[in-house]
Amino acid sequence: xxxxxxxxxxxxxxxxxxxxxxxxxxxxxxGTGNGCNIxxxxxxxCNTTLDPPKAFLTLTQPDTIFVGGGxxxxxxxxxxxxxxxxxxxxxxxxxNIGSDCYSSSGRDLRPSSGFSYxxxxxxxxxxxxxxxxxxxxxxxxxxxxxxxxxxxxxxFSTGCLxxxxxxxxxIPGSCSGIGCCQTAIPKGLRGYEFNxxxxxxxxxxxxxxxxxxxxxxxxxxxxxxxSDLNATDFSKREFPLILDWTVGQQNCTEAQRDPQNYxxxxxxxxxxxxxxxxxxxxxxxxxxxxxxxxxxxxxxxETLKPCSVRGTxxxxxxxxxxxxxxxxxxxxxxxxxxxxxxxPGRESPFILAxxxxxxxxxxxxxxxxxxxxxxxxQRRRNNKLKQKLFERNGGLxxxxxxxxxxxxxxxxxxxxxxxxxxxxxQYNENRxxxxxGQGLVYKGMLPDGRIVxxxxxxTVNEGFxxxxxxxxxxxxxxxxxxxxxxxxxxxxxxxxxxVYEFIPNGTLSHFIHDxxxxxxxxxxxxxxIAAEVASAISYLHSSASVPIYHRDIKSSNILxxxxxxxxxxxxxxxxxxxIDQTHLTTRVLGTFGYLDPEYxxxxxxxxxxxxxxxxxxxxxxxxxxxxxxxFGSEEVRGLVSYFMSAMExxxxxxxxxxxxxxxxxxxxxxxxxxxxxxCLNLDGRLRPTMKEVAMELERLRTRPGDFVPTDQPIQxxxxxxxxxxxxxxxxxxxxxxxxxxxxxxxxxxxxxxI
Length: 754
Fold this sequence. Notes:
Blueprint: H1 2-10, E1 20-21, E2 24-25, E3 44-47, E4 54-60, E5 65-67, E6 70-72, E7 75-84, E8 88-92, E9 98-103, E10 106-108, E11 114-116, E12 122-124, E13 129-134, E14 137-143, E15 157-163, E16 180-183, E17 191-197, E18 211-218, E19 240-245, H2 252-256, E20 268-271, E21 280-283, E22 287-290, E23 294-297, H3 300-303, E24 312-316, E25 319-323, E26 328-329, E27 340-341, H4 349-392, H5 395-403, E28 413-414, H6 417-423, E29 432-435, E30 439-445, E31 451-457, H7 462-476, E32 486-490, E33 497-501, H8 508-513, H9 523-543, E34 548-549, E35 558-560, E36 566-568, E37 575-576, E38 584-585, E39 588-590, H10 597-602, E40 604-605, H11 607-623, E41 628-630, E42 636-638, H12 639-648, H13 652-655, H14 658-663, H15 666-679, H16 690-702, E43 736-738, E44 749-751
């Protein structure tokens, strides 16, 4: 009953204003004009010529754009399906479905659809919508295409991959990567456009999948059907989309300083949503109504009837209480002691004093005993909890490996939770060194004065624990000056913790890409870093007691110490291999942009796969560009494709970082570029080993005069650089997990090229 009343009152419009349009309620701050809406962004046009009438919301376009097969400009109206005072509006997107069709003659380059507007107080909800793509040979992604004067510049791309070889592979109703995939969209999105790519031969599936489609839709509103793969009119369908709204562009603190324009009325609270600028209002506890108009007190005595039969209910603003009448004792609550008649009789003052004294002494003794028992029980509970967390965080697996001395785990110390809490000042926000997809890294100091980095994970699951223990096992058997040193771990906390030596100068990615005059980015520095990383990987492949494949070599996994010496890190996906093994057959793991295309196709990871990834790092050092970036146009391309094209066209010196060109070391730069070109060969057999790469880089670094330059043009081993676009499509900040088309297991791919 209480819920029904609150909902009815909350949906109210401004007095004297239209409250309904057909079956759509129009609560203030939305309205139909003439002072009924708080601002122009909240204007609702009710079209009464339709039966039933329909509500429309005006979105201001930034410029002439292409939507649904045609060009439009100026304001655009979208149909409103629902308005919620919880801060969202459900709309019908109309013809905003991107398409990519093929015919027997090849790809039919039709324009892709987009959605864009500059309404300041509404954004596309990143928590209530999903990017969805359907197709059997499809990489679908969306990118922003508006950089307006009112908003922060956005430059992003996000998407997912979907495969299938026949209709029999497809699971109706499932968007898990087989025929259909879904992924989240970025926060604060106000517009997007679709792009498509096909990693395989799309013509082989034309019989049942002539087109690929992409669209942004309310989470749960689309039910995938096998027939959609063969639908030729799918782009004409309409789906609901959720827009988040807020009032104004100020946060709560700023808005409350301007009482005249502050939208939250009496008995309401202000909240700052994390997905948009501006603020929202809600009625305080114990009140109901529209917080932008008025919140009325809820009479809980009538709605809840909380008191006992003899108890008396007292309604107060925002709250309520119960009491007993004269002659009764108790708390008066229906679910408490209720009200019982007071017992008759009087006791003498002396006896009463003895009773009070005896009761007080008894209470003191009882209190001391209870406190002692509580501490004992609390200590037991804490010990049981720590043991439970120890087992959940992989402690039994750790002890099993420790007892068998597998991987040299006896070198890793088990830290207690108290030690690491003290080292990080109770995980103080000021101690955070970095934030990543897997968790946070804190700076800490151990009792012996050592500075350490404490890696605190965000989540715990079975697959993560295997990677966690695997990283401990791998790092415990490595002793190399260019590999980050693992000091130990802690397994008795909510999430497992790893303790590393502290590396003060961040990642190689920041060193290359962040503009900071304090960083020495000379050619000698870059060449030395490349040689040190190669030495570490060569050690893993050839000199460790058991060969180790790193499987995620990238610039963001290479740290720099106080002297800018390289330290290879993040061994969560690494694997030890037997000496007689030539490869690992695994689910494809890694980071797009660094992923070996041969490994991507075959699921066979070899030592040459690490060589390919290292080749990408060399190219980053040469060019100063990211693994996925924009090169001379608005097109997002892979760095490998960009580099190989330059090598093929003899344009190397045009793409190297200007700081390298300033050093005037053309011959050495050419030699390193040719070495990178060999590392990036599509045929893994033709790539050098890491030992050969390390030797060549060390020779160039220590004896640069030995290099004999050639006047011949720098040629690429590839017939066309376009072959690299699919395998190089990504960014260094996010990893993905996908399998070959024979065993589809596609995960969402998030790109961030800001």
